[in-house]
Write a structure and sequence with these properties.
By secondary structure, the protein is α/β, with parallel strands linked by helices. 37% of the residues lie in helices and 13% in strands. The chain has a domain of 191 residues: Rossmann fold (3-Layer(aba) Sandwich). The structure holds S-adenosylmethionine.
């Protein structure tokens, strides 16, 4: 707790933090903890459109998930860096890492911290946010291809961020910043409402076992957070190589009143990657656990056990702005289907 109670210490963290952090002033610790355990509101729609501000975000922060008690979508892994990654961190962290004030853990974000993207990137430009950026392959490639936009990579795994720093640092990219943080917290409070033009969730951890599905990142509450940060007309792009998670993503986003499926009804029937998974039975070979889930009927077109026809569709063509990561490459090599989805944030 000391990090955010003692505002003097927080101000010493980094330049970026001192520019944007709003210290608590005289609010006692107990009051801060109470704020952080408010129940989720059914709507995350911000009170005003366009650019967000600290006041608007404080309202939303009060309606956010109780992150101290919530199940997270990741397994805590070591923060230790070695060799080239440690060197990359030494060389580039100051330039690219936004060091945020923490809450309880080293991947949390204090709910009073609101990012000033202009200060962090040293310019005004549309913001693309990638959640779970892994080794940084996609974000680095996209930032290089699209220098007119700013890219923010969110990742909990420090060695992955170090690898990302190595990539962006060697290329000397100026339009990338990274944050080591639990993404839902970043969406709930750190990013101003309506401040993001695209939100990317590519190959999030699939959490195969049914009892682990609650750990999946993309679920109803997450759709509310995505809607909160996206500007009207902004895009939420998703991809996965697991059919059961693909169905969950489509169900969650279709059910949200905040989004329209850009490719509604497309790639259905025999063209659907879901139908192809059922036909090929590929997940039986590769995954083990997802086999039965992959064969669950999602439509009345399901003929019999193990035979499915996806008559809903809604799958996007492969997003050509997404670099082929080593992760996706492995899925291709295993013969798995890739499911892309693209949803547009409705006008408020
Ligand atoms: C399966 S990997 C995919 C990485 C990358 N998107 C790719 O396609 O190569 C999922 C990544 O999401 C990260 N992750 C999981 N939950 C997260 C969360 N709540 N916030 C930020 N990153 C998260 C994991 O650490 C992991 O690096």
């Amino acid at each position: 707790m000391k990090a955010f109670i003692d505002a003097g210490n927080v101000h010493q963290c980094t330049l970026q933090v001192s520019q944007v952090y709003q210290p608590h002033g005289n609010i006692p610790t107990t009051a801060i903890l109470k704020e952080m355990t408010h129940e989720t509101s059914s709507s995350h729609t911000p009170s005003s459109g366009g650019t967000g501000n600290a006041d608007g975000d404080t309202e939303t922060a009060h309606a956010a998930e109780p992150f101290l008690t919530r199940t997270v979508s990741f397994v805590r892994r070591g923060n230790r860096l070695q060799g080239r990654r440690q060197q990359a961190w030494n060389d580039y962290a100051e330039k690219y890492v936004i060091d945020v004030p923490r809450d309880k853990t080293d991947t949390s974000v204090h709910p009073d911290f609101v990012l000033d993207a202009h200060a962090a990137f040293d310019r005004e430009a549309p913001l693309v946010v990638e959640i779970g950026s892994g080794l940084g392959e996609a974000v680095c490639h996209a930032a290089e291809q699209d220098p007119a936009r700013n890219f923010l990579a969110l990742e909990v795994y420090k060695p992955g961020l170090a690898q990302t720093l190595l990539r962006v640092g060697q290329k000397g990219l100026r339009n990338v910043r990274v944050v080591q943080a639990n993404a839902p917290e970043v969406l709930a409070t750190m990013l101003p409402a309506g401040s993001v033009s695209e939100l990317w969730v590519f190959f999030p951890d699939p959490w195969h076992k049914t009892r682990h599905h609650k750990r999946r990142l993309v679920q109803e509450s997450f759709a509310g957070l995505a809607a909160r940060v996206l500007e009207p007309g902004g895009l939420w792009r998703l991809a996965t190589d697991w059919s059961s998670y693909a169905i969950q993503m489509r169900d969650v986003a279709d059910a949200s009143e905040d989004f329209d499926n850009v490719h509604a009804g497309e790639r259905s029937g025999a063209d659907s990657p879901l139908t192809k998974v059922w036909e090929s039975g590929v997940e039986k070979v590769v995954g083990g656990a997802p086999v039965r889930e992959g064969k669950l009927p999602v439509s009345t077109g399901n003929a019999s056990e193990g035979e499915g026809m996806d008559d809903i569709g809604g799958w996007a063509p492969r997003f050509e702005g997404r670099a082929l990561t080593s992760f996706e490459q492995k899925a291709h090599e295993a013969g798995r289907e890739i499911f892309d989805l693209a949803y547009r944030r409705k006008q408020r």
